[in-house]
Specification:
This protein is mainly alpha-helical. It has a domain of 82 residues. The protein is built from 6 helices and no strands.
């Protein structure tokens, strides 16, 4: 597989999670590639699942509510959309039910919340 050499700066918290020196002995390139590869496999599957849970109208609502949000650090993915829905004015919902949407959001796993953010970010790239 061809590769491109690049320099990235990793915060200490990420270096620790990847067990890179001085917290471990893993090579940075292989640890990062392995982690990204696994993440992409999981997130691809969960993005499909999330798109089956929510209607296009609901996804568009989330997009409008969150298009200016920055979901960094990743912890913000857990409940960022739920908070946006809870704080949104009622007139934005139209025929959609805030309570049904909130119920669906509350049932999502952490990885599904991250996948939902990824789906919204994909919409932003279009």
């Amino acid at each position: 597989m061809p590769s491109v050499k690049m320099t990235i700066n990793l915060p200490d918290s990420i270096r620790q999670q990847l067990k890179l020196a001085p917290w471990g002995n893993r090579q940075a390139t292989s640890a990062i590639c392995k982690t990204i590869d696994r993440y992409n496999l999981i997130i691809k599957s969960e993005k499909k699942a999330v798109q089956e849970i929510f209607s296009l109208a609901e996804l568009n609502l989330f997009f409008e509510l969150c298009k200016k949000n920055n979901f960094v650090p990743a912890e913000k993915c857990k409940d960022g959309i739920l908070v946006a829905v809870a704080e949104a004015p009622e007139d934005l919902f139209g025929d959609l039910s805030r309570s049904e949407i909130t119920e669906k959001l509350n049932r999502l796993s952490t990885i599904q919340n991250v996948a939902l953010v990824e789906v919204l970010e994909d919409l932003a790239d279009k």
